[in-house]
Amino acid sequence: MSKSIASKPMPRRFHQARWDEPLIFELSQPGQRGVLPPAVDPGILAEVGNPAAALPDGLRRDQPPALPELSQVHVVRHYARLAQENLGADLNIDIGQGTCTMKHNPKVNDQLANSPKAVDVHPLQDDATMQGILEIHYRLQEILKEISGLDAVSLHPGAGSMAIYANVAMIRAYHEARGEGEQRDEVITTIFSHPSNGAAARTAGYKIITLYPDEDGYPDLDALKAAVSERTAALMITNPEDTGIFNPRIAEFVRVVHEAGGLCAYDQANANGILGITRAREAGFDLCHFNLHKTFGAPHGSGGPGAGASCVTAALEPFLPAPTVAYDGKRYFLDHDRPQSIGKVHPFFGVTPAILRSYAWIMNLGAAGLREVSEIAVLNNNYLLQKVLDIPGVSAPYARGKRRIEQVRYSWEELTRETGVHTEEIGYRMADFGAHYWTSHHPFVVPEPMTLEPTESYSRADLDEYVAMLRQIAEEAYADPEIIKTAPHNSTIHRVDPDWFDDPEQWAITWRAYRRKHLGNGE
Amino acid sequence: MTNKPFIHPLIPNSVPEVKAAMLREVGAESVEDLYAAIPADLRLQDPLNLPPPQRSEYELVRHVEAILNKNVTARERLSFLGAGCYQHHVPAVCDEINSRSEFLTAYAGEPYEDHGRFQALWEYTAMMGELLNMDVVNVPTYDGFQAAATSLRMACRITGRDKVLISAAIGCDKLSRIQDYLKPNIAIELIPSDPESGQMNLEALAKALSADIAAVYFENPAYLGFLELQGQTIADMAHEAGAIAVTAVDPISLGVLAPPADYGADIVCGDIQPLGMHLHAGGGMGGFIATHDDETFVMEYPSRLFGVAPTSVPGEYGFGDVAYDRTSFAHREQGKEWVGTAAALWGITAGVYLALMGPQGMVEMGEGIMARTAYAMDRIGAMPGVKLPFVDAPHFQEFVVDFSASGKRVDEINRHLSDRGIFGGKDLSTEFPHLGQSMLLCITEVHSQADIDFLADALQEVLK
What we know:
The complex is a heterodimer. Chain A is of the alpha/beta class.
């Protein structure tokens, strides 16, 4: 009898693709072509010649741009190699990017979004010729009205932070319309709300007041009461916060701000655990926003395109970005007659490929499915919490003994103290196991943070595998921290020397800059 | 048919036995226990009232396709719509690469496990740098509107001034976006352009320029298709007054048009949709902002900027964030504006596009578009009842046709064109009332002589 094949070790023995791929400029071979533009018809040439040659000096380009010259196969091979040197959510148990709701993006939705009937529609076509696109937008608006409980929805925003900005712009317009625009110049947020709440509000001209948590990790109600005044324009707050803690006094927060005459905007970037469970409406909010590429299954595209949805009550509806997508019972149309609108936040009316995928994702699940998504996301998270807390050196600050919603912000403070290994370095080592790991947004209020969000897409075995990776790294930290200090070992590249990035003499944001600064052969 | 529990393909742990075992492990009786933190009065009592689901993949496809089939696309018809979203041929390789799941499904990965996206995005900015003759280009922001609005705010921060001058030839939607974005503390004055040539009125510019002007903004090609010939003069005048020249450009034109940096622009911005993105009903936009490698400018970008760097192994390229401390990721509201998910995949795609086209492809693309546009202007401009308002200026890709003298309205003309299978140009009659019954026609490399002749013949019939 032959021996069986030994069972797999846990964590797995991973090695990422390492093509040692040059920069595309280094692959250039003079004269090679990747694709040919259509030739100009002889009849046109006969009539007009080459008008580009007749451009006046100063407006005519004298040298062709110094782009690389590659045959098609070499372009494909280069980018295929770079793709292999990128994990993406399909390849890894992508729970290490908390707050970002990494979930499976169904392939069928990609097919639908890429169908010629979707990609070849021009946004300025007559409404009659894009009834399908408008219907998808309208239907998704109706669905998000129900999911948020609010009265009107705009799908214009290019992603979540732009939706936050659109909400701030509407808040500003609302107060201005009531003659309180100048007086109300403060926006209140919390430190565990996404940084864009403060940043977008500041961009829109507001002073920012940031509330820190009380000792249990909850947004501090007394601090809120002290902060509100006749100058309060709005509270912009994420709930559950990036700690995964649901603020049980959220309705009280809203009441306090409303009594001061301010509006309340609910950042629903972390809505994946509360779909069909609790809504902006019940908590009294005036606005909220969703990230379609997070909660509703559209892919993240290496950092966009995503899509944001701004949802508002009837009182704020007049201020929505224009045009709105409307339906008169017979036909869908773009309503440009919006005199109080904040105007445009995006060139046309939304990121249709993401909107289409999210519509399909929701339609595949339905109300019961969405609730199951949330329940399993929360179950996964609490299961993971229990397993992670068994790992030496890690803790989950705040709300001790309480359940979390869809994610947890952990702390490696103890491990760092005992081993000198920092959370960033744990991330570098995680790459050796084929996993993505992120720390948290700055500032690190939770010391040595790690934010894990195990959405509904992951099985128990996936969670156990991720925990096994973290455990091994923690054990290495205590036994032989050098392994981590020199990681990654099995990744595409080795540890990057960061010195150039903050040095104006050395940073090289383009090939031109690199040539000039480091090869000494620029202009 | 038995009444089995529903196990969803998207939710592995919806298998009841697994769910029960996991609940046991966490010491919960039911999922309800896990929601104990949410007060009862905030709990939704009834299920969400949503349309019935299309649970099988087949039903879902059928449902969505039935809706999408109500569209008539710009490729099923002959389309001359542009105005910020352009119908170009998208090379198959662009779709192939941006459909690769390693890129499509990734997010904000780190420079190690997601090295590929860092290199691809750095190469995108590097190729844009060659196209623009500038050393610094951002990881894409949302779109060209945002890029313009941010460029102007950057100019204000750099100069410490709070007023900008914008060419009145800008499109209304973009101006609306800029106005909203600059509203808190920046004033805008529009500089008129010559009604015959479209060129910026330099006397008005000279009058408006003062010590409180942060930037002068114009577009080349202009929104209405003509080229601004006075770029160098405008930039010189701006610089003379201590202001920054901000120029928006269509990157597809830069095989033949001089990059704005060559005539003095300090900040150059625009949209990358033309570089390999489909129309997507306007959902394929991505913004770029470019500057010279001047620390004062670099430190005012809100966007991520990727840099190349050595690693611990000789011959390896590493990548990372340049001057990360500028961003709202690092310092929340103390950062520059804000940064978030925007349009990275379109940036990767635009890089693929530029690599495929190469220098020669971009030259041929520009020449081909200009030739086709000139031909269309000749044919249409020769018709009675038609006037081309800016005909004396060179044009790139788009031009205005004024039908006022024909006595016909643009919407009426477009209806007739539609009957003949043509999507006519954008109706400008409300956006630019002083241009009368005008439309903005867009000609790209996708239009053959026969296509342009078909449009011209149809217009001739409609105008009879």
